[in-house]
Design a protein that fits this description.
17 helices, Uridine Diphospho-n-acetylenolpyruvylglucosamine Reductase, domain 3, Uridine Diphospho-n-acetylenolpyruvylglucosamine Reductase, domain 2, 38% helix, 4 domains, Alpha-Beta Plaits, homodimer, 5-stranded antiparallel sheet, alpha+beta, 7-stranded antiparallel sheet
Chain lengths: 470, 470
C-alpha cells in the first residue's frame, strides 16, 4: 500500500487572509520563515514532510481560539503541534495551513497531591512534569521515549515502556479542555475518578491526533514514586523462550512496571552504541516497582519463570544511576539501531497483537526480514503484545525502499490476521491511514461520521486518520 | 429540577407496520402482552416506567439487525434490554417502540485463557460468566451488585465494589460489536491490549446507554483469581475518620480490591436485615487480593492507617464462606435500607467527587438530610470518591417526595461544585438528564452532534442522555 498522501497546496488568497487577520495580534509569534515552517512540517518519521504556510506560537486558550476562528472563517487547515516527535506524519501540513505551536503553553495549572492528579497546559513535556512532581513523591509514568508534550501524548494516545503496569494515555487522562473546529471551548470531564454521565468525550479526543479539535489543557492521573525500584536484564537462547517468559509473567499477574524485549540485532546495536557488554541474544529488560517485600517477591517469581525457559542469570540494577544507564540504553535503541548502518535512514513502525500470538508474529516477521534482505532491529513493549521494527534503509535505493514498504505492509496484515492492530502506539497520522479500512472495516465510516459531525469543513489536521471531503 | 420526561405515544400505524413486518420472522418471540411490556418498561429505580409497544426476544446478530432495520424503516424507537437492573430509567420506552430483549443471546463465544480475554453475547450475565471461568482460575471482577448482563454493563459503563482496583467497564471492555441505527454491524476494536489506530469507538459506545446502537458482542479483559483473598470490617468514631483512612490508603497506593463505606444508618439496616452484629458506626468493608505476602503487607499497612484515625480492630473474614456472608450483606444493602422503613419506596442516587472532597461532600449531604427530615442510608465505593444514597420515601407523600427531589438536586449540584460528576456509575438514563448541562456545559452539544451523526432519525433509545429531535 502507498503510505504517501497527496499534498494539496492552499489557495494563496485564503492563506494571505488568515495571516493578515492574525498578524496584528501575534506579531513575531506568527512566522512564515522557511526554516520555521520546515521545522514544523517534519516529525521523527521517514514520511515525507510538508511545511505549513505559517506557524503561530500561541500562549493562551484565547489565542488558540482566535487562531481557530480565523482559520475557520477562511476554511484554512490547522495543525496542532507540540514537540514534533510523532512517527506517522501526524504534523505534515498536507493541505498547507497554519501550524498551531502550543509549546509555549507550558504551565502547570493545578496540582492536587491528595487526589494524585494534575492539570497542565498542552506544551508541558513529560520530563518537565516529572521534575515538578519529584519532591512530592509523585510521578507520571507514561513514557513514550521522546520528551514529548503532554498535549501531543494525549492527542496520539501515547504509551511506552510503563504501559504494561500503568496503562496508556487512554487510562491516564482524566479530562481535557478542547477548542473545537469552530472555536468553541469544551471541557470533556470533571475530576472524578469515574463517571457514567454521558458519552466518553475524553476518550474520543484522546488519540484523535488533532483531527477533532485542539487540546488546550490535560488533567492527568499521577502515581506515587514506589518505595523500591529494581531493574534487571536477562537473556535467552532464542526469541520464543523470551516471549514465553513474558506470557507466563503476565498470566501470573506479576505487576511488572516494564518488560521490554530486544532482539539479538538490537542488542548488538545497543552494546555498540551505549557501550554495554550484554550477550548478543534475545533479551528482556525488566523493571519492578513496589514495596521492598513486593519487589523481592516479583523478582523471585520472574526468575523462576525465566529459568524454566532457559533464561540466563539476572543482571540487576538497583541504584538509581545504574537503572538510569540501563533505561538510557533502551531509550537510545533507535539511535543505536541507526548507528548499525551508517548513512541509513530509520523507518520505525509498530504493531500490537494478543499476547498469545506474539511469538508467532515476531518469528514470522523475522523470517520475512531475512528472506527479503532487510536489516530491522526489533524492540517491544511485549507485556502488551506491542513491538516495533526500525527498518534501516538506504534512502537512495528505491528497490530497498520498496522491499521495506512491502515488508511493512505484510507486517501490518500479519498483525491484523492475528486479531491485532496496525499501530499499538505510534498512531495513524497519514502513514498508517491505508491500513485503517483493513483493520476496522465499516467502523471507519463511523469514525468519518464523527469527524464530519465535529469538523464539518474538514479544517482540523486534514488528511490524517480518516479521509474526508466537506 | 424535574427528572420526569414527557411520554410521547407512538403513531399506531407505524407501530403496527413494524409489528407486521417482524411477526412472520419472530412469531412467539414478539410479544405485545401487557405483562411482558410492563416488565420491560420498568427498571429498578423510582422513575416512572413506560412500557414499549412490543418486545422482541432476539437470538442472533442477524435478528437484531432485522429488528433495527424494520424499526428504522418506520422510524420506530428501539430500546435494547438486558436484565432491566438499571437505575435511572434507562429502559423506559418514553416514545413507545420496540424493546429489543437480548437476554437470550447468552453464549460465551470465545475464551482465551492465554490472553486472559473472552468474547460474550450481550445477554451473558456476570455471574454466568464467572461460573464459566472459575475452573480456569480466571474471573471477571466488575460487580455492580445486580446480576446484570454484560451488554447492559457495557452500555451503562457499570462499575461497583471492585473498581478501585480493577477499573470500570471503561477499562475492562476491549472491543464491541454494535448494530448501528441503520442496521449496519461494526466491530469497534480488535483484541490487542492497546491500539492507537483511530478514534476510540469502544469507549464511545461504552456508556452510550443504547442511544447510539445495539451492543451485540462484548470482548472483555479477565483477571486471575488471586492466590489469597481476605476481607475485613472496621468501624470508626465518625465519618471523617473513616474517609481520612480511605484517602491515606489510596495515596499509599495499597492495591485494595474493595474499600466500601457504610454510614451508621446503613450499618444498622445491615445488622437488622443480614443478622449481623457490627457496631452501629461509620464502617469500612475491605477486601485484599494478592499473594500471601502481599495480602499480609496490605493488611498491616491499612491497619496502621486506620489506627491513626481511631479505627477499631479489624474483624477478618478469611474463609470463602465468611467472606461471601460479608459481601452478601454489602450487596443486600439496598434491601436492608428498604426494610428500615416498611412500605417506603427506595430512590437510589449516586455521585462521585475527587477523593480529597469526599468527606466534605458526604458530611454536608448528611447535614442536609437531617435538616430536611429525610431518611437515606449511605453506602459508597469510596476508594473512587463514589457514594450512593437511597432515599426512603413514602410514595403517597408528595411533600416528602418533593423534599427528596430537592435534596437530590442539591446533592448533584454539591458534587459538581466540588468538581465531581452527577453520576459515578448509575448513568444518565432520563433520571439524570436534567443535570447534564450543568455538568458538561457546551460539551453536551458535542454529545448531541455525535448522537445526530450516528442516529440521525433519533430512534435509538430516545429521550436518554441527550435530548434530540431529528
Amino acid at each position: 500500500m502507498d503510505a504517501s498522501a497527496p499534498i494539496l497546496p492552499l489557495d494563496p488568497a485564503r492563506r494571505d487572509a488568515v495571516i493578515a487577520a492574525l498578524r496584528p495580534r501575534f506579531g513575531d509569534r506568527l512566522s512564515t520563515a522557511q526554516a520555521v515552517r520546515d521545522q514544523h512540517g517534519r516529525d521523527e518519521s521517514w514520511h515525507a514532510p510538508a511545511p505549513p504556510d505559517a506557524v503561530v506560537f500561541a500562549e493562551s486558550v484565547e489565542e488558540v481560539q482566535a487562531v481557530v476562528r480565523a482559520c475557520a472563517q477562511e476554511r484554512v487547515p490547522i495543525i496542532p503541534f507540540g514537540t514534533g516527535t510523532s512517527l506517522e506524519g501526524h504534523i505534515a501540513a498536507l493541505r498547507g495551513g497554519v501550524c498551531l505551536d502550543v509549546s509555549r503553553m507550558n504551565r502547570i495549572l493545578r496540582l492536587s497531591p491528595e487526589d494524585m492528579d494534575v492539570t497542565v497546559e498542552p506544551g508541558v513535556t513529560r520530563r518537565q512534569l516529572n521534575a515538578h512532581l519529584r519532591d512530592l513523591g509523585l510521578f507520571f509514568p507514561i513514557d513514550p521515549g521522546a520528551d514529548a508534550s503532554i498535549g501531543g501524548m494525549a492527542a496520539t494516545r501515547a504509551s511506552g515502556t510503563n504501559a504494561v503496569r500503568y496503562g496508556t494515555m487512554r487510562e491516564a487522562v482524566l479530562g481535557l479542555e478542547v477548542v473545537l473546529a469552530d472555536g468553541r471551548l469544551i471541557r470533556t470531564a470533571r475530576r472524578a475518578r469515574k463517571s457514567a454521565a454521558g458519552y466518553d468525550l475524553t476518550r474520543l479526543f484522546v488519540g484523535s491526533e488533532g483531527t477533532l479539535g485542539v487540546i488546550v489543557s490535560v488533567t492527568l492521573r499521577l502515581w506515587g514514586i514506589p518505595e523500591r525500584i529494581a531493574s534487571a536484564v536477562v537473556s535467552f537462547p532464542d526469541l520464543a523462550s523470551a516471549v514465553a517468559t513474558v506470557i507466563e509473567t503476565i498470566q501470573a499477574q506479576i505487576p511488572l512496571a516494564r518488560i521490554e524485549l530486544l532482539d539479538e540485532v538490537q542488542m548488538e546495536a545497543c552494546n555498540r552504541y551505549s557501550k554495554l557488554s550484554y550477550p548478543v541474544a534475545p533479551t528482556l529488560f525488566l523493571e519492578f516497582h513496589g514495596t521492598d517485600t513486593s519487589v523481592e517477591e516479583q523478582i523471585a517469581s520472574v526468575e523462576a519463570i525465566a529459568a524454566q525457559h532457559g533464561g540466563g542469570s539476572f543482571a540487576f540494577a538497583h541504584a538509581a544511576e545504574e537503572r538510569s544507564r540501563l533505561w538510557q540504553a533502551r531509550h537510545e535503541a533507535y539511535y543505536a539501531a541507526l548507528a548499525l548502518r551508517p548513512g541509513a535512514k530509520g523507518w520505525p513502525t509498530d504493531v500490537c497483537v494478543p499476547i498469545s500470538r506474539l511469538a508467532e508474529c515476531i518469528l514470522e516477521t523475522k523470517r520475512d526480514l531475512e528472506a527479503n534482505g532487510l536489516l530491522a532491529p526489533l524492540v517491544g513493549h511485549v507485556g502488551d503484545g506491542n513491538f516495533h521494527l526500525v527498518f534501516l534503509v538506504d534512502p537512495d535505493d528505491p528497490d530497498e525502499l520498496a522491499r521495506a514498504a512491502a515488508a511493512n505492509d505484510r507486517l501490518v496484515m500479519r498483525a491484523l490476521a492475528l486479531d491485532g492492530t496496525c499501530s499499538g502506539e505510534h498512531g495513524v497520522g497519514y502513514g498508517k491511514m491505508p491500513f485503517l479500512a483493513a483493520e476496522h472495516g465499516e467502523a471507519v465510516e463511523v469514525m468519518r461520521a464523527v469527524k464530519r459531525a465535529l469538523d464539518p469543513e474538514g479544517i482540523m489536521n486534514p488528511g490524517k486518520i480518516v479521509a474526508f471531503s466537506p
